[in-house]
Amino acid sequence: MSNTLRPYLAAVRQTLTAAMCLENFSSQVAERHNKPEVEAGTSKEVLLNPLVVSRNDKEKALIETSVNSMRISIAIKQADDMEHILAHMFTRFFMQRAESFIILRRKPIQGYDISFLVTNAHTEQMFKHKLVDFIIDFMEAVDAEISESKILFNVRARTVADSFLMNLS
Predict the structure, then answer these.
(1) Count of H helices and E strands in the chain?
(2) How far are the Cα atoms of 39, 57, 163 from residue 166, in angstroms, in the given order?
(3) Could you say which DSSP state residue 23 is in?
(4) CB 59 within 8 A of CB 75
(5) What's the pLDDT tens digit per position in 39-87?
(6) Which residues have CB under 8 Å from 20's CB, separation 6+?
(7) Lowest mean per-residue pLDDT among 53-62, 108-117, 159-168
(8) Among 25, 29, 89, 125, which has the highest number of CB atoms less than 10 A from its own CB?
(9) Are 70 and 20 in contact (CB under 8 A)?
(10) Do the Cβ atoms of 84 and 63 come closer than 8 Å?
């Protein structure tokens, strides 16, 4: 992990840990319903202010919290077109397999690349610190995978260009 990524992930970790105090809360609109209020948005009084933790203007995490759920939306670094393509392919791969990742949403929030939804049921079934660790590890892995894929792509392109130029001469 790079030294510039470390403080950003530490800030996201602390924010997630502080925000993950979720409890069971029935819907105020429909009886016997318990929907994630951050998704439903039916009661404004149970929604907390959204928080953006930003590394730069293109790489940020939006944390929206309510009484019984929280949504974490992540914008992955995309400095150039190659990183944009790699990030899109990587996030699309995971979102197609969202049922395997219990907290992953199929569709991200507008302006972000991937989103997670953690409900009070998830925090009752799983350890809170493990959920935070998973999200932070995911962010680290995506960053490392995109960087590594970009380097490997450049190496392959250089090899192809060298062999093409050798054939011309």
Answers:
(1) 5, 4
(2) 58, 43, 5
(3) -
(4) yes
(5) 887 878 888 999 999 998 889 999 999 998 999 999 998 889 999 999 9
(6) 70, 118, 123, 128, 131, 132
(7) 159-168
(8) 25
(9) yes
(10) no
